[in-house]
Amino acid sequence: MIEGAWAYLTPDSNVTSMQNYILVRGVASGMFAVDTLSPSPALISVSDSNLTLGESALVTVNFTEAVSGFGLEDVDLSQAAGNVSNFQQLSPTSYQMTFSPTQNVWDVSNVISIVNHGYTDIPGNLGTGGSSSNFTIFTLQKDTVPPSPIITLSTSLVTTSGMEITVLFNEPVQNFTLDDIGVVGVPGIFTAFVPENGGREYRVSFVPAIDWEVQDNHFIVYGDGYTDLAGNKGLEGVSGSFTVDSRGPTGVSLPLTDDIISQGEVLTVRLQFSELVTGLDVNDFDTTEAAVELGALIDEGGGIYTAIFMPIADRVQAVNRITIGDGTYGDLAGNLGFGMELPAFFVDTLRPSVALSLSDTVLVAGQSLILTIAFDEPVVGFDNNDIDLRGTPGTLGDLIFDGVSTYYVEFTPSPNITATSNKIEVRGDYIDIAGNAGVNQFTNFFDIDTKSPGLSIGISDAQLSRSESQTLTFTFSEIVSGFSVEDILLDGAAVSLTAFAPVIDGTVFTARYTPPDGILDPVSAFSVAAASYTDLLGNDGLGATSPDFSIDTSLPTIYGTAGNDTLVGGAGNDRLCGVPAAGSMLGKGSVDKLIGGGGADQFVLADQRGVFYNDGSNKSSGSKDYALISDFSRSQGDKIVVGDGIYFFASTSVGKTSGTGLYLDTNGSNAWDSKDELIALVAGASSGPLSVNLDLIHF
Fold first, then answer.
1. Which is it for strands 696-698 and 639-642: parallel, antiparallel or unpaired?
2. pLDDT band for position 686 (50/70/90)?
3. In the predicted model, is pLDDT for residue 650 greater than 70?
4. Cα separation of 147 and 453, whole Å?
5. What is the rounded distance in angstroms from the CA atom of residue 48 to the CA atom of residue 110?
6. pLDDT tens digits along 291-312
7. Any long-range contacts for 5-12 (C-beta under 8 Å, 24+ apart)?
8. d(CA 403, CA 516)
9. Is the pLDDT of residue 688 over 80?
10. Sign of CA dihedral 422, 427, 433, 436
11. Is the pLDDT of residue 319 over 80?
12. What pLDDT, on a 0 to 100 scale, did the predictor assign at position 1?
């Protein structure tokens, strides 16, 4: 710390603080006061605001604090017609004096002021000035002339916006109010009563009642409600005439020519007003609740306008509201017009759309599909001509309508064709109820295959003999399903085949055929019936037949004679025939014993000449001529060869020989009886009971 150091403190202005100290490194100075706030007159009041002849007023000046040096020299009367006297101090902060107005003065603007810096407060701060409220001086000599008004009008044509009335008196008046003003002709309201010029002039606003059209109206100032400053009662006054037109224009909409607005159309509205109007423009139409925009407004003259509205695209709105608000337009007099609402209308600019669905995506022979055409709303003018097959092979049936908005039509593909990626188009030549044009739409793709798979059958050998076999080749036009060895027939009958197998992707199959012994068939053929297989889509296949071929696996035949014979075969396969190889002697009256021996033997009881051992008589069972087969064995493959006719097996005994008799149904009863012809007696048969189906073959 430096000894003897010092500094100046400059206090803030406009501050009053009585207890202050300075703190230096923890050491406080002594207390001191700060007062830099200038004193000012808090109130300068004049005891009378209307001074007349012979009157004076007390002027009181109250300061914000005690002052020093305040005297009459600080009072400014430059804006007040008069002088002051009797100056006295009432308290340290209050002073009073008498103001006397000057004679023969009429002054409505008077104020008494205190001069700036003419005095100080106790600490020495210079004071500030101030002024009293305004007061009036009227010290003219007293008169007996009553005040009179002159009424002027701001306009001679009054509308709803009203007018201003000026009432000018020849001298200042008092107690003049709105109750002293009246109107003759039209009702209305007086407002905004404003006195001016020291009570000599008054401005009044008048608004007429709504919906009036009246000429020759007047305002009246009544003379018994006001006086001049001397107390003389006022005179009555009448204004010039004026016309009132407070009837606002109205409008109506003429009937619409079309109240359903669709795509490409416009809404035309004609408006007729009660009189010529002004200020009407496109901004006065409120379309916030309508699906339209104002495109043009045409003034046709005579209070008639045409408004053209453009509908908003892709909208459906049943309720549309267009309004013109109150006061958005006016008549030529300036009256604001009344609002109105335009007629209701329907907006539909949304084009109808359609959803297409197919009941099937792949069609085969014998199938058809249903095309469902579902519109999102009812349409007009839709028929078969609006459906384009786009080259898809097939035909359409008649449209079926559900009565609302959905149609159904059957599509039948052409036969024997294959076509992929087909589609059907619904053209947008139809319209909805509002008249909006439709849209084009396509179905999903679908495939058609009504072509039946074909087949060719190849054989490896045209002449088959004993111990030979041949390879069958089945070649299809496409991959097939359901083809099996059971579908292959030989001369229309089932046949036993081996090595049946596909060899190329389901389109080529092979099998082997080995004819059994004892067959002599100069013309044979393999076949596959139609519809016994399908392609992968389910189309029935076509039938096919192989080239003809011959089969000769005849066994060596042992023939008998015309009499009774015993024929014995060897260890191999034998064919035993008890009648001669030729001639007409077919065993009538003879009994031949046939012994096959080992192997698969055939016992011949008929050939192309006829059935053997038939005596031709229906009177007996023919037990005197037959073939006695003594060692028939099914397990060895033995067969009995018969001719045309119906045959029965039945237990039979002839003499001492018993066995199973084979009978020819000669009386046509289709059931075995004692009159049927015995042609063979099988004795010692093995492998179970004999069966017509298992043990007989036809020559």
1. parallel
2. low
3. yes
4. 128
5. 12
6. 999 999 999 999 999 999 999 9
7. 11/36, 12/36
8. 71
9. no
10. positive
11. yes
12. 41
For residue 416, what are its two tokens? 């024997």
Place of tokens 């005994």: 653
Q: Each residue of 374-412: pLDDT tens digit?
A: 999 999 999 999 999 999 999 999 999 999 999 999 999
Q: Which two tokens stand for residue 161?
A: 């916006």
| Residue 331, beta-bridge partner list | 277
Is pLDDT larger for residue 29 or for residue 315?
315
Task: Please give the C-alpha separations between residue 118 and each of 23, 67, 132, 356, 644, in angstroms, as whole numbers.
Answer: 37, 10, 17, 104, 167
* DSSP, residue by residue, 6-71: -----PPSS-EEEEE--EETTEE---EEEE-PPP-EEEEEES-SEEETT--EEEEEEESS-EES--
Burial 385-402 (b: 16+ CB within 10 A, else e): ebbeeeebebeeeebeee
Q: Which two tokens stand for residue 635?
A: 């397990």
252-256 average pLDDT score: 90
Residue recorded with tokens 């005297």: 71
| 48 within 8 A of 135, measured Cβ to Cβ | yes
Q: Is 404 left (phi over 0), alpha (psi -120 to 50) or beta?
A: alpha
Q: How far apart are CA 64 and CA 15, in angstroms?
A: 14
Residue 373: Cβ-neighbour burial (10 angstroms; 0-12, 13-18, 19+): buried
The alpha carbon of residue 402 and the mean position of all alpha carbons in its chain are separated, in whole angstroms, by: 22
Q: Give rounded-to-5 percent helix, strand, coil for the chain.
A: 5, 45, 50
d(CA 300, CA 307): 11
What does 249-297 look like in DSSP terms, one character per residue?
--EEEPPPS-SEEETT--EEEEEEESS-EES--GGGEEEEESSEEEEEE
Half-sphere CA count of 130, side-chain side, radius 13 A? 18
Which residue from 648, 667, 651 is spatially nearest to 659, judged by alpha carbons? Answer: 651
Q: How confident is the model at residue 482 (pLDDT cuts 50, 70, 90)?
A: very high
- With a cut of 70, say whether residue 687 has pLDDT above it: no
Please tell me the total number of residues recorded for the chain in this structure: 699
| pLDDT the model gives residue 566 | 93
| Calpha distance 576→565 (Å, rounded) | 11
| Residue found under tokens 């037949």 | 545
